[in-house]
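Review form for a predicted model. The reviewer records the input and the model, then writes brief findings.
Reviewer: anonymous (R2)
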Amino acid sequence: MSAKEKPVADAGESVTAATAEETAAAVNEPAHPSVAEIIEANPDTPEIIVDLLRVSERLTALMEREIDMIREMDPAEMKALHDGKAGLAAAYEARLRNVSEDPSLLDTLNDEVRGALRSLTERFAETLNRNERSLHAARQATDAMLRTVVNAVAKQQREKAGYSPRGNHAAPSGAPISLDQRF
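Model under review:
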């Protein structure tokens, strides 16, 4: 199996490197040299760095897709990505931990691989920030919608209640309502 095809293990499952076309299509950007192309051109790159590059590329593409799904308001597809995102995030953290335990690995990198790692790390950080902002905004919108629905139901129940024979507001006779706040 070549370095280009070598699976990246993460939390018990196999993750293969995405092609440049798949990654570019997933993020709607022009293709840059993919991790697979960089690895192929630099076969002496330490395996832990190769794994870190692959996992970073996949996790970044997945978060960019999640941002698109939030914009498209597609929670069903977002739920389907959730397990993959959790596995890739765990794999990313493990690879970072491995590199931090042996920082001399970074000294062995040539300029092309070091530049790719730097660029991918910057892109990952930017995507992570955008992803967090998108998730926060979606959560706020969902909370606002739930408050609006609850207030509308409460108002409707008060309006239907009318007055008691003594002139006080009568207790509403509607069925209770329960809303699920999961997003």
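Findings: Confidence is low (pLDDT under 50) at residues 1-27.
Further findings: Residues 35 and 116 are 8 Å apart (CA to CA).
Recommendation: see findings above.
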